[in-house]
Design a protein that fits this description.
Blueprint (H helix, E strand, L loop, with lengths): L1 H25 L10 E9 L5 E10 L3 E10 L2 E15 L2 E11 L14 E4 L5 E9 L2 E5 L5 E8 L1
Antiparallel strand pairs: 1-2, 1-9, 2-3, 3-4, 4-5, 5-6, 5-7, 7-8, 8-9
């Protein structure tokens, strides 16, 4: 089931990436905003001090975003999540408007509770007001939960 969910999310990300690639070929070579493009997942730091390597990618077009990430513990995938929707940037603030989410079933691990298999459309009123920092080709997303995720730019 984990492979099926991850494969389904990956197909959606590939589709978004192809669209973003075509859009960037017709636009100027530099993105209009600091987030636009692809970012390779690096690490997940939780507010309780736990931290885990990540596999995955987040893609930003001019107004949409999509992410797939897999939390790794002891070299093995533990849980996965895919999300997507619209976003708004104001300075170093980014507000994620979630339209879709899918997550794999997973047992609890330090800092993260048990997770059920979910695949649904979120209410468009549910937003996640976060902040970000971009330094060169590295990005950190600071989530309202107190957790943060680090990324390395993989494309523009």
């Amino acid at each position: 089931m984990f492979k099926l969910v991850v494969t389904s999310v990956a197909i959606g990300i590939i589709s978004l990436g192809m669209h973003a690639s075509r859009a960037s070929q017709s636009a100027s070579p530099e993105p209009a905003g600091p987030l636009i493009g692809g970012w390779q997942a690096e690490h997940y730091y939780l507010k309780d001090g736990s931290n885990y390597p990540l596999l995955g990618q987040i893609l930003f077009t001019e107004k949409n975003w999509m992410v797939i990430y897999i939390v790794v513990k002891d070299g093995k995938p533990q849980r996965g999540s895919g999300e997507g929707g619209d976003y708004i940037v104001n300075g170093n603030n980014v507000t994620f408007v979630h339209h879709y989410i899918v997550s794999t079933p997973a047992d609890a691990i330090a800092g993260l509770g048990a997770q059920q298999l979910r695949a649904f459309k979120w209410d468009k009123e549910l937003v996640e007001a976060s902040t970000f920092e971009v330094k060169g080709d590295r990005m950190t997303l600071f989530m309202p939960s107190g957790n943060r995720l680090t990324w390395t730019r993989s494309s523009r």
